[in-house]
From TrEMBL:
Domain of life: Eukaryota
Region named Disordered: 210-231
Protein name: Diaminopimelate epimerase-like protein
Pfam families named in the record: PhzC-PhzF (PF02567)
Signal peptide: none
Molecular functions per Gene Ontology: isomerase activity
Gene Ontology CC annotation, any one: cytoplasm
InterPro entries: Phenazine_PhzF-like
Length: 231
């Protein structure tokens, strides 16, 4: 195959965490036979992921002849891409690919998906239809104290009021221009030069920075930005 020849790849779309079509988390899985792997550069995979425009797209590396050689290989490599970058690991792409491998493709002998973060054990859940299990390694730390135990509790001291300054007329764009833009909008990152004075300052967002959130009563409220300095 030359670099100018078109590449034909098989892909499937999966709805993860649901049994109802078009619900759950959508996922695209592109199958890459071993012989085509050298032709799928990082840039090509990233462009394919952008074309799908899902939160994640998985590239599943397969053998050239699964029927002949598949039973002897019990692991398959996967690459996980967002529309912006490759991820070493992500949850619903791993679970969705496990479902696809064990059920749709019928590769019951495959027991491991190899991500950039490491191997993930997978298996069907016996007696639960087509449900699958992915064993995700994780580290858990249980703290000996709760936050409430460390901070304590009690009434607000009268002098606290003098430590609070509020300004509702300042233009936050002029004071703290946004320093990062992500898929959801601007994210200001603030650096404080002094911690000598305890000061809390709440500033209204411009409309473009406000996000409505539902309240328990069914109404909406708006986020406000707060900067806090503690001595």
């Amino acid at each position: 195959m030359t670099s100018s020849e078109p590449i034909t790849l098989t892909y499937l779309t999966v709805d993860v965490f649901t049994s109802t079509r078009y619900l759950g988390n959508p996922l695209a899985v592109v199958l890459i036979p071993a012989s085509l792997r050298p032709h799928l550069t990082q840039d090509v995979k990233q462009r394919i992921a952008r074309e799908f425009n899902f939160s994640e797209t998985v590239f599943l590396h397969t053998l050239d002849d699964e029927a002949r050689d598949g039973l002897s290989v019990t692991s398959r490599e996967i690459d996980i891409f967002t529309i912006e970058e490759e991820l070493p690991f992500a949850g619903h792409p791993t679970v969705g690919t496990a479902y696809l491998v064990l059920n749709h493709l019928g590769w019951k002998h495959v027991d491991t998906l190899v991500t950039k973060a490491g191997p993930i054990a997978i298996r069907p859940l016996e007696g639960e239809g087509e449900r699958v299990k992915a064993t995700i390694p994780h580290a858990v730390h249980v703290h000996s104290q709760t936050l409430g135990g460390i901070l304590g509790s009690g009434e607000v001291k009268p002098e606290t009021e003098t430590m609070i300054k509020a300004s509702l007329s300042d233009d936050p764009y002029a004071i703290y221009p946004p320093t990062h833009y992500g898929p959801s909008g601007p994210y200001p990152f603030l650096l404080f030069g002094s911690l000598n004075e305890a000061e809390k300052r709440c500033i209204k967002f411009p409309k473009s920075w406000e996000s409505p959130v539902a309240s328990e009563s069914g109404g909406t409220s708006k986020f406000k930005r707060c900067e806090e300095q503690v001595p």
